[in-house]
From TrEMBL:
GO molecular function: phosphatidyl-N-methylethanolamine N-methyltransferase activity; phosphatidylethanolamine N-methyltransferase activity
UniProt protein name: Phosphatidylethanolamine N-methyltransferase
Pathway given in the UniProt record: Phospholipid metabolism; phosphatidylcholine biosynthesis; Lipid metabolism
Gene of this entry: Pemt
Residue ranges that the Swiss-Prot or TrEMBL entry lists as coiled coil: none
Source organism phylogeny: Eukaryota, Metazoa, Chordata, Craniata, Vertebrata
Enzyme class: transferase
Protein species of origin: Lanius ludovicianus (Loggerhead shrike)
Length: 204
């Protein structure tokens, strides 16, 4: 059972009306919304591919923008933590090293996902018509679905623990929720793209 009193005490440290906290929440929510809207628009219109001269160039451009936005999100996340109090009794070595372990595992998942998928596989290349030959099942996809997203979430969780930050923990929950919603939209749409590919191959 969830210890409600502990949760109330934990989030009593968080000022959700703080400007930095609000900006961090907005940046977290905006990123997956942005790349899903733009990628679906590209899939429907091929407008970016026409502007940049090829689907691959357009995908690299969108991927670069996503990377920049993720850097902005991480900066806002960190600044929001700095502006809010630490949790009393958590500023110890065990908390720091637990956070470090979460961040290390998350980084492993993110980097190994990128290496398995490549740049276009990571940054929505299938929406640009750059499809992979087969589904990736190697590590870390052999362990869990969407390891890039959950690895990123683990990094934020670790970062929050390292700073003994209740605000960081709450923002990490926002990250997890935003990714969960993104998966609900991306999963079926991506599956449909590959289903159409298989259908086209069978009709030839």
């Amino acid at each position: 059972q969830v210890d409600v009193a502990a949760m109330v005490r934990l989030f009593g440290y968080v000022d959700v009306t703080d400007t930095g906290f609000i900006v961090a929440v907005l940046s977290i929510a905006f990123n997956p919304l942005f790349w899903n809207v733009v990628a679906r628009w590209e899939h429907k219109t091929r407008a970016l591919s026409q502007v940049f001269g090829s689907p691959r160039a357009a995908c690299y451009c969108l991927g670069t923008v996503i990377l920049v936005l993720n850097c902005v999100r991480s900066h806002c996340f960190t600044e929001a933590m700095k502006s809010q109090p630490k949790l009393e009794g958590w500023d110890f070595h065990w908390t720091y090293y637990s956070g470090l372990a979460f961040s290390a595992v998350g980084t492993l998942f993110v980097i190994s996902s990128f290496l398995a998928l490549g740049f276009t596989g990571t940054f929505l290349g299938d929406y640009f018509g750059i499809l992979m030959e087969e589904k990736v099942t190697s590590f870390p996809f052999s362990i869990l679905d969407n390891p890039m997203y959950w690895g990123s979430t683990a990094i934020y969780l670790g970062w929050s623990l390292m700073h003994a930050s209740p605000a960081g923990l709450l923002l990490t929950a926002v990250v997890a929720i935003s990714y969960t919603i993104a998966v609900l939209y991306e999963g079926p749409f991506t599956e449909e793209i590959y289903r159409q590919k298989q259908k086209g191959m069978k009709s030839k």
